[in-house]
Design a protein that fits this description.
Chain lengths: 77, 365
């Protein structure tokens, strides 16, 4: 399977940081860290997507949609 | 709700509009905000008072990029707005991204819909995972009453019901794809995708997407009826015909074709037929079958006329099938009929039912 491009990863990281409190840093490269996968699964669960922990097209398409800036989990600090 | 169930401690909440978007007339912004607040006031004892100066509980403003709360917007699209849960200072404040184009209609982002969602946050509502709820985090356009039962239950858990509540018809909850009793309204192909209509929603199945995507019909096609009775694809004409009551619409891809809606009687159906239950186009014969109650009609697409001898009995011509059909779709010589919670795989050539499955097995359930 083709690895997601860097752009896809950056978009996903930004999304998970903003809406799912993915911690800053330590995520770089093209391998998914445990934190990244867990937050991705959390997001997939919230949106009733298939919970794989992988950055599939379906998950990425949802990340690109226009939305509200309030996180889906917890609250602003 | 947000953690600790944050809410206003009084039912009298103040708001102030600090600035206006140039995209709309000032009066349109005022109206959108007031109507959005009324959506919540109608189902709770909350009362909203507008302030023109000083500190209000809910301070409403339009800004771009970094706009003073260290929580920047991102330019056009993406983030549309955000709001803070009830509390002192910034609590309750509601910010709209001025880089968006705000409208009164469906053309870009409808200010009323976004405001109603954001003001939900300002009152203590967090995001809902129900795609039919106003508090679902992804923007979608829809007309009609904006709250679902999920929204109403949520806000009333914080503030209680409105003692003078007028009767409102909440938006239905989005149907659950793995509900074993799930039935469908219509199923059609659309350029290699499968579109399944149920209530006010549709699922989109793409061969390269592992999970079906659920959307409000009104979000994609605001001008077609909110419920669909039947649909079929004519791949030769690259059209999908959608039936609702005595009207039909045509889609080319996802775009509505000009000149529609037309009356279903244009196809040659008698005036006594008030709705089509299911429709399917058989590629191999060029015929479109239109199912109504316990009968079906055969429409010749090339001739643009109904075949003689119609209507015919479903039970007699499709042995093994139920006498009524909710939806139908054709794949490689097989007709898939949907009725109630069951799906019948019918071999068109050997004229018999091969398999019976649950209707929602098509949704990977």
């Amino acid at each position: 399977l083709p690895l997601p491009s860097e752009e896809r990863w950056l978009l996903a990281e930004k999304y998970l940081r903003r809406f799912y409190h993915l911690p800053n840093g330590l995520q770089g490269g093209q391998t998914s860290s445990g934190d990244f996968q867990n937050k991705l699964k959390e997001m997939q669960r919230f949106f009733n997507l298939e919970v794989t922990g992988n950055l599939d097209d379906n998950t990425l398409a949802l990340m690109k949609e226009a939305r509200c800036g309030v996180p889906d989990v917890a609250e602003y600090n | 709700h947000f953690p600790r169930d944050l809410k206003w401690q009084t039912n009298d909440v103040t708001f102030r509009i600090l600035n206006y978007t140039p995209d709309l007339k000032k009066s349109d912004v005022d109206r959108a905000i007031r109507t959005a607040l009324n959506v919540w006031a109608d189902v709770t004892p909350l009362k909203f008072k507008k302030l023109y100066e000083g500190d209000a509980d809910i301070m409403i403003s339009f800004g771009t990029r970094e706009h003073g709360d260290h929580n920047p917007f991102d330019g056009p699209d993406g983030l549309l707005a955000h709001a803070y849960p009830p509390g002192q200072g910034i609590g309750g404040d509601t910010h709209f991204d001025e880089d968006e184009h705000w409208t009164r209609d469906a053309s870009t982002y409808n200010l009323f819909i976004v405001a109603a969602h954001e003001l939900g946050h300002a009152l203590g509502m967090s995001h809902s995972s129900d795609p039919g709820a106003l508090m679902y985090p992804v923007y979608s356009y829809a007309t009609g009453y904006p709250l679902s039962l999920d929204d109403i239950k949520g806000i009333q858990a914080l503030y209680g019901p409105n003692p003078n509540q007028r009767k409102v018809k909440p938006k239905p909850d989005a149907p659950s794809k793995c509900d074993p009793t799930l039935s469908f309204d219509a199923v059609t192909e659309l350029r290699g995708e499968t579109i399944i209509f149920k209530d006010e929603f549709y699922w989109r199945l793409h061969p390269q997407m592992p999970e079906p995507e659920q959307t409000l019909i009104k979000s994609t096609w605001p001008s077609i009826s909110k419920k669909v009775d039947a649909a079929y694809e004519n791949p030769e004409k690259d059209l999908v015909i959608i039936f609702s009551g005595i009207r039909m619409w045509a889609l080319n891809g996802y775009n509505l074709v000009d000149g529609y809606p037309k009356y279903i009687h244009k196809l040659g159906l008698p005036k006594t037929v008030r709705k089509v239950d299911a429709a399917v186009h058989i590629k191999d014969t060029g015929k479109t079958l239109l199912f109504t109650d316990e009968e079906y009609w055969s429409y010749d697409e090339a001739a643009g006329a109904m075949d003689s001898g119609c209507p015919r009995s479903i039970e007699e011509d499709f042995p093994g099938m139920d006498d009524e059909v909710d939806a139908a779709v054709y794949h490689y010589g097989y007709l898939y009929f949907f009725h109630d919670h069951l799906q019948y795989e019918y071999s068109y050539t050997s004229r018999k039912v091969i398999r019976i499955m649950r209707a929602n097995s098509i949704l990977n359930c």
